[in-house]
Design goal:
Strand 3 and strand 4 form a beta hairpin. The chain is globular. The protein has a six-stranded antiparallel sheet with strand order 6-7-1-2-5-8, with no helix packed on it. Strands 3-4 form a two-stranded antiparallel ribbon. About 0% of the residues lie in helices and about 40% in strands. By secondary structure, the chain is mainly beta. It has no helices and eight strands.
Length: about 100
């Protein structure tokens, strides 16, 4: 099954949280912060949203940083995804 987002929405898959700190300390699951970096797996077409023309600036495969409590979590075929508006994305992460 596939997810096809509508309007200015994107589907993302959260990237795993770090298991160790930069200093080499192993983190327990309760000490890990919720990751705020994700990979885009699907992008809506954009268009007119609330009377404004929206151009999609992200593409499938982009790694992005997002707001902490943005989006709606969904589970499809055992995989967790999040659907959110492009405006909830703060930045594109580059290497």
């Amino acid at each position: 099954m596939k997810i096809k987002p509508l309007a200015d929405r994107v589907v993302i898959k959260m990237l795993e949280a770090e298991e160790t700190t930069k200093g080499g300390i192993i983190l327990t699951s309760s000490a890990k912060e919720k990751p705020q970096v994700a990979e885009i797996v699907a992008v809506g077409p954009g268009g007119v949203v609330d009377g404004k023309e929206i151009k999609m600036e992200v593409k499938v495969g982009d790694k992005v940083m997002l707001q902490k409590y943005a989006g709606t979590e969904v589970k499809l075929d055992g995989v967790e995804y999040m659907i959110l508006r492009q405006s909830d994305i703060l930045a594109i992460v580059t290497d």
